Amino acid sequence: MTLSLLIVQLLNGLQFGVLLFLVAAGLTLVFGVMDFINLAHGVQYMLGAYLAVTFVSLTGSFLLGLVLALAAALLLGLALEFLVFRHLYERDHLDQVLATFGLILLLNQAVKMIWGAAPLSVPVPEFLSGNVRLMDGILYPVYRFALIAAGLGVGALLWFVVEKTRTGMLLRAGASNAPMVSALGVDIRKLFMIVFAFGTMLAGFAGAMAAPILSVEPGMGDTVLILAFVVIVVGGIGSIRGAFVGALIVGLVDTLGRSFMNDLLRLFMAPASARATGAALSSMLIYLVMAAVLFVRPEGLLPAKGRS
Amino acid sequence: MASHPANSTATAARPQAPTVRRLAPLIIFALLALLPLGSLLGLPGHWLTLVTRAMIFAIAALSLDLVLGIGGLVSFGHAAFIGIGAYGTGILISEGQAEILVALPVVLLACAIFAAVTGYVSLRTRGVAFIMITLAFGQMAFYFAQALSAYGGDDGLTLYEKSTLFGREIFANRTGFYYAALGTLAVCYWLARRLVASRFGRVLRAARENAVRVTVTGYDVNRVRLGAYVVSGMMAGLSGFLLANQTDFVSPAYMSWSRSGELIFMVVLGGVGSLYGAILGALAFLITEDVLSSLTQNWKVIFGPLIVLFVLFTHGGIAGLVAKLRGRRDG
Asked: Would A157 be classed as within a structural domain?
């Protein structure tokens, strides 16, 4: 009984971690290569989800809607890059934080105006509905498995692109020394565009994939953005491997903490105070983990090579 | 700490016309002190409340400028201190303890402890990681307040009385409260100025320019930074104390991350590192917000792009503009 709950929660944690990885990977990639801190990354996740809502209901097909939503998210991201971000690459981090913060205010409110403040949802696609029977009495939704698989698949693809292709080689070179890459005759602007498009697609994809299981509402990107920051700090800034490990840690710790903290505290506390303490403690747990990691390793668990 | 004089880079940190630096705050405070007279001349009473609120946020912005402008540390979690100050005050009042002489030490101590612990961990990193970590710690405080179901949780905590001094209801009068906020702001400004001018402040500024050199000179940079962070946190806690008393309400929203972002914008709007700029920035921010939100419910659609445009096209904020008008270039 408790074991079955544990298995289900482990899977939930894994699924949450994978989702966080998709967001954090884009964020850390953009930061690693371009030295650009993009707070609007969370908003791009939110846009992915909203666009999925619109296009899935328009086309009536989940896959087609997903593809269209991704394309639209990419276009919007590139428009933002052209209008705002491009002018910020040379600025200091304070300017970047502030300008992208302004964009968050704008886009959160714009989304509220266009789609309304009420939470929306996307129906789980027909071919991914239903449950898988893991063992006696444990059912787990197929869609969540699909999400885990898709996330891991994208992760593997990302690894392949970064480690095995020429573009990936340039990315890695750019991450350790962008001016040198530029001096060697590589069009750094184009490289930045590619990186940025990549990051946007990843965030949009995460948002669209999350749409059927989470409520789609304004501000949904903010929560994810801050968790992605925790992931990146824990894993090591600029490191995709670090983002992967960090995302799994944060996803698992958060999910397991929320479901088991109560029972754990009840072993040595009165039920009422255990519930109150448990709620407070479990919502703070990942930040405590982050503090602990930083205390031991200030540069994160798997810091990117070649950064000082 | 070493006793020899600070490195010469410290004094050259941010040149600005000395007359501007001396006169501008005097003018600001004189105008603020005269504002309540305006309500006698027909200024809507709403303005008194608005400017009181603006001054309360000016205290928080000033405290942020101390670490962000002077220390060069972009803290993205400063709203947490406002929240701790407000919650400390609110919890004490709802437990029947409204005495200021109890509330203030408790609030300041709580902020100092939170600042010392989170600052110690955060200062192990630099640059972007510092931004992210302070943001995460701020968010931690936010979620903690949300989970605080005994004191309103997500809905917040309504206060049925204000803080008292020796049992007297000194905050009951609106004009009286206005001057209490103004007085607190003035004291905080004076303290911050003194701190920046002291050896401690010079080391802090020097560390912003070149931490390695300051370390080599024999100072423990992180200890100085942590000291500044703690002082700054306590100051922001003070603004939380006042905020709880003004609104008679405490809620997790006080420490939301967008509030921290707004504080940064106030500092940058006024001009980073000038201290009085933070006050101007807070006033300008809250008045703009008030005007825009009276125009349309969707004021953020206008305000967001304004921030973006401001960042893209200006440097040095309002204080920089003042300096420029005086024919001197900032920095």
From this structure: yes
Q: Write phi, then psi, for A139 (nearest 5 degrees).
A: -110, 145
At B296, which CATH number? 1.10.3470
Asked if A232's CB is within 8 angstroms of B312's CB, the reply is: no
- Residue A116 to chain B, least CA–CA distance (Å): 12
Low-confidence ranges of chain B (pLDDT < 50): 1-13, 328-331
Q: Looking at the domain assignment, is residue B246 inside a domain?
A: yes
Contact indicator for A129, A143 with CB cutoff of 8 Å: yes
Overall domain count for chain B: 1
Range of the domain at B198: 14-34+45-325
Tell me if A98 and B264 make a contact (CB, 8 A cut-off): yes
Cβ separation of B311 and A99 shorter than 8 Å?
yes
Last residue of a domain, one of A172, A193, A218: A218
A255, containing H or E segment: helix A240-266
B168 to chain A, minimum CA–CA distance in Å? 35
**Residue A295 has which token pair?**
């205390």
| A–B interface: beta-carbon pairs under 8 A | 130
Is A131 a domain residue?
Answer: yes
Inter-residue contact A265 to A255 (CB < 8 Å): no
**What local confidence, expressed as pLDDT, does residue B106 receive?**
95
Residue-number span of the structural domain to which A32 is assigned: 26-218
Alpha carbons A193 and A198: distance in angstroms, whole number:
8
The complex's ipTM works out to 0.86
Distance from CA of A294 to the nearest CA of B (A): 7
A88–chain B nearest CA distance, Å: 8
Both A72 and A143 in a single domain? Answer: yes
- Give the pLDDT of residue B151: 87
Nearest CA in chain B to A229: B132
Alpha helices in chain B, H assignment, sequence order: 18-40, 45-65, 79-94, 100-122, 127-146, 174-197, 199-209, 211-216, 221-247, 257-270, 276-295, 299-313, 317-325
Per DSSP bridges, beta strands A138-141 and A131-135 are antiparallel
Residues of B in contact with A294 (CB under 8 A): 121-122, 124-125, 133
Query: Structurally, how many domains does chain A consist of?
Result: 2
Residue where a domain stops, chosen among A218, A249, A276: A218
Q: Are residues A176 and A74 in the same domain?
A: yes
B9: left (phi over 0), alpha (psi -120 to 50) or beta: alpha
Same domain, A175 and A285: no
**Contact (CB<8Å) A295/B121:** yes
Lowest mean pLDDT segment, chosen from A35-49, A128-142, B275-289: A128-142
Minimum-distance CB partner of A283 among B118, B132, B147? B147
Which segment of A44-48, A154-158, B74-78, B80-84 scores lowest on mean pLDDT? Answer: A154-158
Question: Residue A233 and residue B306: Cβ atoms within 8 Å?
Answer: no
Report yes or no on A68 lying in a domain.
yes
B55 in a structural domain:
yes
Please tell me whether the overall predicted TM-score, pTM, comes out greater than 0.90 for this model.
no
8 Å CB contact of B298 and A104: no
Whether A223 and A163 map to the same domain: the answer is: no
Is A250 part of any domain? yes
